[in-house]
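Design request, tokens follow.
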């Protein structure tokens, strides 16, 4: 999900430009910056939690399309093998994320709406279990309203996948916040025109071990 960035005010730009013009003769020109080598930024920032899809991964953008793969914030999300957080363990009693993220979308004049397939529609209105990484929406140790994502966040404000890679949870019983995967059980609702752009919601949810 994109977040607004604070932009400097116009008068600051004008003032800065004027100062440089007046002092141009007195100040030495700065040495042009050396273009960083590929991977320098990633190596400098430490362990990679999530990343764009690598080339060759289904759903990745083709080479020459502006990047090595699908950018963070879209698609199913990608759990980097370099992440210090382990992937979701295999469980037979939960809805696989591959089912939820196998989703077509239609672009309208005002929004992007999901087109749920028959398998997803068969889950609607029934009690389902979903496993994922918790994204808290309140600064409390326990949560009753939060998101579950298929891969862990890369930062506190960065969702690595698109709306199909997350489920909004409205819990009946508070769930303790954890960076480890959590499992919740509730009634699944498919969201066809949610004002926040979400596609799935689990209501009356309770934690499951």
């Amino acid at each position: 999900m994109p977040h607004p960035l604070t932009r400097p005010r116009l008068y600051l730009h004008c003032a800065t430009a004027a100062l440089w013009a007046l002092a141009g003769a007195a100040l030495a020109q700065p040495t042009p910056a050396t273009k960083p080598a590929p991977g320098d930024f990633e190596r400098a920032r430490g362990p990679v939690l999530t990343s764009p899809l690598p080339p060759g991964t289904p759903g990745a953008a083709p080479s020459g399309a502006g990047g090595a793969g699908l950018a963070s914030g879209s698609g199913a999300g990608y759990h980097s093998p370099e992440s210090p957080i382990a992937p979701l363990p295999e469980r037979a009693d939960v809805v696989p994320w591959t089912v939820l993220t196998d989703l077509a979308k239609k672009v309208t004049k005002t929004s992007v709406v999901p087109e749920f397939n028959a398998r997803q529609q068969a889950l609607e209105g029934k009690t389902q279990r979903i496993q994922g990484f918790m994204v808290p929406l309140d600064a409390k140790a326990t949560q009753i309203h939060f998101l579950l994502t298929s891969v862990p966040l890369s930062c506190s404000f960065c969702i690595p996948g698109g709306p199909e890679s997350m489920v909004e949870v409205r819990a009946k019983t508070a769930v303790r916040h954890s960076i480890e995967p959590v499992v919740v059980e509730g009634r699944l609702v498919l969201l066809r025109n949610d004002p926040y752009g979400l596609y799935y919601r689990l209501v009356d949810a309770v934690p499951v071990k």
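Comment from the thread starter after seeing the answer: thanks! Confidence is low (pLDDT under 50) at residues 1-32, 41-55, 58-72.
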